[in-house]
Each structure stands twice: as structure tokens, then as C-alpha cells.
Amino acid sequence: MKKNLLSVLALFFAFSLLFAGGAKDEGAAQGVTTVRIALWDYDVAGSVYPALFAEFEKANPDIKIEVVNAPANDYETKLTTMLASGDSIDVFFAKSNTSYPTVVEMDFAKDLNPLIKKYNYDVKPYGTVLKQHYEINGGLYALPFRTNDWVLYYNKAMFDKAGLPYPTNDMTWEKFFETGKKLSHGDEYGSAFYPKPGFIVPVLIGAVDGFDISVSDFNLLVPAAKKVKAAMDEGAWEKFAESVSLSKDQTFFFHGKWGMFYDGSWFTQMLEARKDLGFKYGIVKSPYWAGTAKKGFATSTPVLMSSTTKKESAAWRLITGICGAEGAKMVAKSMLVPGYMSGDIMNTFKESAKLDESSMKALTNNVSYGLGAASVNLAKLSAAFNQELESFLTNNQSAEKMAENLNKRRVEILKK
């Protein structure tokens, strides 16, 4: 990891001239403009932010970045408090696709469409992310810093030992659980999820093409929910309640206890940071349900401009600097998948993560889906889904009751 961080620093000079492009701030002639940006985990090990911001400042000497940092668990509360109190935040990261519509509803974010038009900014390299995740009532309030395709990581050693073929890019969820059952024995499980409902919800939603938690009938997900739980009961993956009680996380994949692990593409960086990983791993595209389109869940990290900023031009330069081509190269170098994509940028990612061709295919050209269209109620609906799914997975209600409760709770949420 130290070598990769040094490589990131080595990119500074190469990107300096590129970062310098774009519109200049109105106040630049009078001196340096300070842009305040809020985010979480700025200074954790492996963070790309310090290097990224230092490089931006180098290329834009008329802009100084002031970081407002918070721990990940406290970030959303701190951000909302600051924005509501009129704190002079100019640019901020939203924690997730579900929290993004909430800050838009509270009028904390500026519509970026006029700026995109004003500066003739090319948004095509962001692919479908903008329309799928960020458009709200015709407005566009964020650009993606990075994207996260949810994929399947697998332990090659466990498959070799069991004499089973490796997963492929066209694996179904049915095959995932069937294979997981064959790999499971003792305290090792062939299939695995991070033990939080939000990491299993995408599996259920993927069972119905075009499912939207804001409008679709939750009864449609009952068959998939039953299959997921049956696989758990049969030992393909660990009992959800047990995983939660033991606070299990991705370290169990690191330690060779999980054969296949469904997670976001950010996990690649975590794996490469492990110098003590005792096995080779591979990556394949997300499984899909038989009879449905081949697709995978995707999330992204939104970067927004405060609706009250008085430094619009400088804030725009910062957003497009870190979310555009130049910033994307440094994000890719840190082994994270950027929101802004091109062949060259993904080659940088491939070289940094040292992935083989098969694993790279898992992270590119994916057909993706989300929880549904961006809406101000998405966070509340997602929270309700997580609660009801956990109750189902811990044997406190049936799949049918879960669906019934979700349909009822949605009516109440949408009334407010």
C-alpha cells in the first residue's frame, strides 16, 4: 500500500497542468479563494483525499481547500447540522444515494445543470449514473466522485481445494447458493454477505427487472426472499443473527473463512492493502436471478455544491477537478473505481490493483440497477426495507408478512 501511495504522490506533477483548466473564480484576481469542503474519513489510512486536494491546490494556486472532516458514523448528522445552521460549507460529499435526495429536499444543494451548460461540461463519461441516481424533478445536484459496482469476490484456494470451477461473469444467484453449499463446512461458508440488511436488499430487488422501492409491489420479492433464507437455513451462508451477534465483517474473507463474498468494488482496495492475504482472489460480475436480465447493483458517492455558497465558480472548479478526468486518474490509482470513466482511467485502475483480465471484465461495462428513482423518500423507504428484512432473516416474520408490512409502511411514508 505504501508503494501505491507513493505512486499517487508521483502523479502530482503529471496532473498539474491538467488540473489547471476550467473556469476561474471571480475573486481570484484579488487573491486566494478558500473553498470549504465537508467529507468523512479524510485522513484514514489509504485515503486518496490528502494527495488529491494537494494536487488540486498546486494546479490552482488561487484556490485553497479547507477540509471539514468527520468520522464516517457521525458524518450525516454533522453535515445536516452544519448546513441547517448556515455554516459556510461550499462543497460537500453525500454519504450515499439514499441520503442525497434528502439534502436536496432540504434545499441544501444547488442545481448543477446551469453550470454544466455555462461551461459546456461533458457529462458523458459518467455513463448512466447521473440519470439513474442523481436526477430529481429535472434537476441535477451532484457529480459522482466514485462508483461502486457490487460484484462477487472469491477465494481461489477454497475452490481449488474443493475441486470446483471458479465463478464466472454469468453466474446466477441460484448457482451462487448451490456452490456456496458445496464449499461450506465447519466454520467456513461458501457464500457470504456483510451482515447488514442493506447488503442483502440488492439481491432481492434484482429478482424483478425494473423494481423500484418507491412504487413496486413488495409481494413480487417474496419468492426471492424465500430462496435467500432457504440457502441460509441450509448452510450455504451463515445465519444472519449469528453473524450480527459476532460482529462479523470482511475480515472473515481475509482469513479464508468465506469462499464467495458479495460486496462493492471498494473492497478491491481493502484486499490489496492486505499484505498477509494467504490466497489469490478473483472477481466476477454480480450474480443475477435466472430468468431476469444480467445486471448488478451499483451505488455512487455524490459531491454537491451548497445552495448558499458565495464562491460558485471556485466551488465548480473544485467539483469538476476531483470528479472529472484528472481527479479520476488519482482515484483509479488508489484502487477505487471513479465516477468519471474512460479506457485510460480504467487501465490505470487495472495496473494499480494488478487485476487479471477476467477480474477487470467484472468491473467494466456493467448493466446496473439501484433502489429506484432518486426521490426524497428513498432514505426512509430504504430504512424500512432494512428493518423488515432483518425481522424476516431472524425468523420473526414470514416473507409474506415482510412484503405486507413494506407495502403498508410505504403508504404512510409517502403521505408525509
From TrEMBL:
Residues 1-20 form the signal peptide. It comes from the Bacteria. It is found in: Periplasm. Residues 389-416 form a coiled coil. It holds the Pfam family SBP_bac_1. Its main location: periplasm. SUPFAM superfamilies: Periplasmic binding protein-like II. Keywords: Coiled coil, Signal. GO terms for cellular component: periplasmic space. Belongs to the bacterial solute-binding protein 1 family. This is Extracellular solute-binding protein. It comes from Treponema parvum.
